[in-house]
Amino acid sequence: MDILFLLIPLSVILVLAILGGLWWAIHTGQFEDTEAEGERILHED
């Protein structure tokens, strides 16, 4: 039972870190053009 006092806050911190990373990736333009990389591979010389 004592381990829950450690695991619950750690899981909340982990979820907040994941959401923060996703928010950062969206706002820095990581998902702006998802089709370009696939087309670039096909058209490389």
Describe this structure in words.
The protein is mostly helical. The model has no long low-confidence stretch (mean pLDDT about 90). The longest helix is centred in the middle third of the chain and has 24 residues, at about 5-25. The termini are far apart. The chain is elongated, with a radius of gyration of 19 Å. The chain has helices at about 5-25, 35-40.
What key phrases describe this protein's structure?
45 residues, mainly alpha, 2 helices, 69% helix, 0% strand
Walk me through the topology.
Blueprint (H helix, E strand, L loop, with lengths): L3 H24 L8 H7 L3
Short description:
The protein has helices spanning 4-27, 36-42. Helix content is 69%, strand content 0%.
How can the largest sheet be summarized? none
Low-confidence stretches: none
Shape: elongated
The topology string of helices and strands comes to HH
Instruction: Report Rg.
Output: 19 Å
Strand fraction band? Answer: under 5%
Q: What is the tally of helical segments?
A: 2
The end-to-end distance, rounded to whole angstroms, is 61 Å
Structural category is mainly alpha
Total number of beta strands: 0
Share of helix, binned? 55-70%
Summed over residues and divided by their number, the pLDDT gives a mean of 90
